[in-house]
Structures are given as structure tokens and as C-alpha cells.
């Protein structure tokens, strides 16, 4: 009998990596993804060498070929480097040596198998629950609904004929299977006390070459902290002959210890409210950015020009984190689902290493399944937990330390 496939819920970094790594061991998996097509995450993420080196063998490629495909500054036949200059980053966010800034969309395209690997990804399939198998280690049935009217899957119907050897949840920070299997948990995800506004801008290549490149000195990211303790970051997302995509961030500790509520800290805002930026932000930015250190720095003056910032694609980011107890992970597994990646341990975007941990989870889990099979998969948590704890602690320390200081108070007590 053909072995049942493993169901992977979510075609993000963890899901795509797991699928590729399992295929390398000859193990079949199917990815169920809510989105109707591969999403375009056209932004840069920092990959550590301990993350991308093991990926090379899974993808059967060399470091040079990998860099050519995914570095933020690679395009066409031009090979970039994804170089990060440690001296241009805040001390708490400096990644390990040889870390590389890669474009997430390009990395996902590579993982999706445009090199011929062709994974089985079922788009427009939103997981809603699981029917656990009666006998442990056997198939569970994944429930999902169609999120695309043109799809043949009937809304809210069971997955039907195909049951699965195991169900791996890689749905990310807002995992529905986590809620389904453990229930709503107070403060999961939690929101850390920071106000972070993100802007995205396309800069003409000539402007980038004359104003940005000299200040960046080859680095694909630069960060500083103002006297007021506001973190300003500039990150290269992608490059081509015509233009360069950049992300900037303006981030500070939330003001929780004053009698006047912080108008910019909205931990309970809905996802759709993320793009509504209060005027209070521009008023504040005008004041914070009108200093000699910003005005005299050609790059900062160019990027953090409040008029230009207003025209950028703006979002207010929440610094979310997911911290689960081992008992909760075991409870989810007892109900038929193994959580990995952000679904199990999301970290704040700033200072976090969620992509690195999601990929590490996927590689380590595939190895475990290849050696031990899918029976007793919950034991894998024991091997992952120490790595998660160390990483989440680093991430938490990094975000608090990067915002520390300035005249607006000290946030260290909250670490
Ligand atoms: C702008 C930005 C910059 C970042 N920079 C870095 C960085 O420099 N370094 C770093 O390490 N990390 C970084 N991160 C964090 C990193 O991107 C995440 O930690 C990582 O993507 C987590 O991977 P994942 O596979 O667990 O989840 P995700 O990548 O979130 O993937 C989850 C997938 O599941 C799908 N899904 C959700 N619900 C369902 C459902 N019910 N049914 C089916 N499918 C579903 C989603 O559509 C999605 O495709 C950054 C994040 C952002 C947003």
C-alpha cells in the first residue's frame, strides 16, 4: 500500500522547507495553503549561515548559485551578495558573521521548486480543524474549506478521500489549528510594548546610486538610534536596473507610564487597521526627526523626510510573540497536530529570528521523520525546545535592548 502523505498546513517558510526536505528523503507530503497563489513577500530577511548552509544540500545547489538566486541585490545575471555591515547595525541586532540579506519572495520561489521539484501545493485550502485518528500514529483527517469559489472543494467539507500520516501546522503566528487544538490562550500571541511604523518605497536606481549607496557602503541595512531612543532602520528589499525597493522603520518603546495614553500604541487594533496611521505619528516624527544628526546625514534626511514618508506604503506593525508551554504543545499533538515555526514560537519582527527558526524546525523535523517515522512525533519537541527557548530569549533581549535609552525612559525592566 502507498504510504499516506504528510499534511503540511501553510506554504510559508517552514511549510515549503519541510516539503522540500521530506522529498529529499523520499517522503511524500501535501501542502494546504489558504492563499490562492504563492504570496509575494517582496521584502528582505536576514538568514544566518547556520540556516542557509543546510538548505544548500536540500536544494542541491552551491552557495554561489543560491546567492545569485535569492540575495536582495541579485537580479538578472547580476550577482549580489546580501552583505550586511555589522558596523551599520545596532549592537543588539548584529547577526552572526556571513549572514545574508535575502529576498523572501525569491527564496519561496526557489523552495516552491521552480527548479523542477514541483511540490504538491493545494492553494485556496484553508484548514479549519482535524478529526484525530482513533489509533495513535495512524491517519488523521484534515478539515478545510475552500477560500476560492472556483475551487472544487466544498466549503467546510472534510478533506475527503485522502487522510494523512501526520498533520504539521506551519500556519504562522495566527494559527487556527493551534486555537482549534488548544483553545484560545490568554496573551497568545502577546504584543510587546513597542510602536513600530513601517514604510515601503521604490527609489529610482539613479537616486539610490547617488544618495543611498555611498552611505550604505555596500550594506543592505542600516540602523541608528536617535537621542530620543527612536530606532530608525533602512533595509534594501530588492534591486534592479530601474529601481530599488526599500523598507524603513521608525520604532520606539510604547509610553505606558504616562497619564496620557500613547496614541500610537494600539495592541488591540484589527489587521485591517494596520494601514491607518494616525496624524499623531507625523506630528511626532516631525519633531523627532528635526535634529542635526538626522538633517546632516544625507541618507537619513532623504529617507526620513516626513513629506516623503506620507506617500509611502505605511503600516503600523505589532511586535507579536507566541510563547507556549510544552504541555500546550503536547495537548495540540494529542489532538492530532504538531506545531512548528511561528505557529509554535513567533518572535517579534524587529530583533527576531523567526524565519531562521522556522527553517531550522523544518529541516530538523524532516530529519527526525526520516529516521524515526511519524509514530511518536511529539518526541521531536524535546530536541527542538532548547533551541526555541534560547532563540526566543535572544529575540526578546534584542528588541528591548535596541530600544533602550533615550530621554523617554528605560524599557529594560520588561525583558
Ligand atoms: C517584514 C518582515 C521581515 C522579517 N524579517 C525577518 C528576518 O530578517 N529574520 C528572521 O529570521 N525573520 C524575519 N521575519 C519573520 C519571518 O518572516 C517569520 O518568522 C517566518 O515567515 C515564519 O515562517 P512560518 O512558515 O512559520 O509562517 P509564515 O511564513 O507566516 O507562513 C504561514 C503560512 O500559512 C498560511 N496559512 C495561515 N493560516 C492557514 C490556514 N488556516 N490554512 C492554510 N494555510 C494557512 C499563510 O497563508 C502562510 O502562507 C520577518 C517578518 C516580516 C513580516
Helix content: 25-40%
Give every kind of bound small molecule, once each.
Answer: flavin-adenine dinucleotide
Weakly predicted, low-confidence segments? 153-161, 407-415
Query: What overall form do the CA principal axes indicate?
Result: globular
CATH superfamily of the largest domain: FAD/NAD(P)-binding domain
Mean of residue pLDDT?
Answer: 91
How large is the radius of gyration?
A: 22 Å
Q: Please provide the count of β strands.
A: 16
Question: Structural class, judged by helices and strands?
Answer: alpha/beta
Total separate domains: 2
What would the keywords be for this entry?
415 residues; 16 strands; disordered C terminus; FAD/NAD(P)-binding domain; 2 domains; 14 helices; five-stranded parallel beta sheet
Q: Your description of this structure?
A:
The chain is of the alpha/beta class and 415 residues long. The chain folds into two domains: 6-38 and 112-188 and 321-400, FAD/NAD(P)-binding domain; 192-319, no CATH class. Helix content is 33%, strand content 20%. It contains 14 helices and 16 strands. The protein has helices spanning 13-24, 49-59, 63-70, 104-111, 176-182, 205-216, 279-289, 292-295, 298-303, 306-310, 326-334, 342-345, 354-372, 380-402; strands at 6-9, 29-32, 44-47, 100-103, 120-122, 125-131, 141-146, 166-169, 190-191, 194-204, 221-225, 231-239, 243-253, 313-317, 320-321, 338-339. Helix 5 (176-182) packs across helix 11 and helix 13 packs antiparallel against helix 14. The longest helix is centred in the C-terminal third of the chain and has 23 residues, at 380-402. It binds flavin-adenine dinucleotide. Flavin-adenine dinucleotide (FAD) binds next to helix 1, strand 3, strand 6, helix 12 and helix 13.
Amino acid at each position: 500500500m502507498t504510504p499516506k502523505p504528510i499534511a503540511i498546513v501553510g506554504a510559508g517558510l517552514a511549510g515549503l522547507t519541510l516539503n522540500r526536505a521530506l522529498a529529499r528523503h523520499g517522503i511524500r507530503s501535501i501542502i494546504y495553503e489558504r492563499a490562492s497563489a504563492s504570496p509575494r513577500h517582496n521584502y528582505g530577511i536576514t538568514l544566518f549561515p547556520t540556516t542557509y548552509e543546510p538548505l544548500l544540500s536540500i536544494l542541491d545547489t552551491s552557495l554561489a548559485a543560491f546567492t545569485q538566486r535569492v540575495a536582495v541585490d541579485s537580479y538578472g545575471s547580476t550577482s549580489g551578495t546580501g552583505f550586511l555591515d555589522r558596523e551599520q547595525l545596532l549592537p543588539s541586532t548584529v547577526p552572526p558573521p556571513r549572514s545574508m540579506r535575502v529576498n523572501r519572495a525569491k527564496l519561496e520561489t526557489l523552495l516552491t521548486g521552480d527548479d523542477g521539484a514541483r511540490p504538491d501545493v493545494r492553494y485556496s485550502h484553508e484548514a479549519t480543524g482535524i478529526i484525530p485518528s482513533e489509533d495513535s500514529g495512524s491517519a488523521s483527517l484534515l478539515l478545510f474549506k475552500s477560500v476560492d469559489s472556483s475551487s472544487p472543494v466544498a466549503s467546510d467539507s472534510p478533506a475527503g478521500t485522502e487522510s494523512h500520516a501526520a498533520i504539521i501546522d506551519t500556519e504562522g503566528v495566527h494559527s487556527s489549528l493551534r486555537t482549534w487544538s488548544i483553545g484560545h490562550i490568554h496573551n497568545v500571541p502577546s504584543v510587546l510594548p513597542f510602536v513600530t511604523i513601517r514604510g515601503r518605497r521604490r527609489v529610482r536606481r539613479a537616486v539610490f546610486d547617488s544618495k543611498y549607496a555611498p552611505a550604505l557602503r555596500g550594506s543592505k541595512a542600516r540602523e541608528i538610534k536617535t537621542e530620543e531612543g527612536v530606532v530608525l532602520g533602512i533595509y534594501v528589499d530588492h534591486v534592479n536596473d530601474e529601481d530599488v525597493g526599500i523598507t524603513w522603520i521608525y520604532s520606539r518603546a510604547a509610553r505606558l507610564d504616562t497619564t496620557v495614553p500613547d496614541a500610537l500604541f494600539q495592541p488591540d487594533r484589527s489587521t485591517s487597521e494596520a494601514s491607518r496611521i494616525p496624524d499623531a505619528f507625523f506630528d511626532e516624527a516631525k519633531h523627532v526627526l528635526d535634529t542635526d544628526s538626522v538633517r546632516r546625514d544625507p541618507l537619513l534626511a532623504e529617507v526620513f523626510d516626513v513629506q516623503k514618508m506620507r506617500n509611502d506604503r505605511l503600516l503600523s506593525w505589532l511586535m507579536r510573540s507566541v510563547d507556549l508551554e510544552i504541555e500546550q504543545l503536547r495537548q495540540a499533538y494529542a489532538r492530532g497536530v504538531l506545531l512548528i515555526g511561528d505557529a509554535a514560537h513567533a518572535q517579534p519582527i524587529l530583533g527576531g529570528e523567526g524565519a531562521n527558526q522556522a527553517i531550522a524546525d523544518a529541516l530538523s523535523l524532516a530529519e527526525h521523520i526520516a529516521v524515526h517515522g511519524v509514530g511518536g512525533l511529539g518526541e521531536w519537541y524535546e530536541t527542538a525546545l532548547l533551541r526555541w527557548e534560547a532563540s526566543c530569549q535572544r529575540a526578546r533581549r534584542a528588541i528591548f535592548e535596541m530600544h533602550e535609552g533615550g530621554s523617554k525612559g528605560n524599557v529594560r525592566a520588561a525583558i
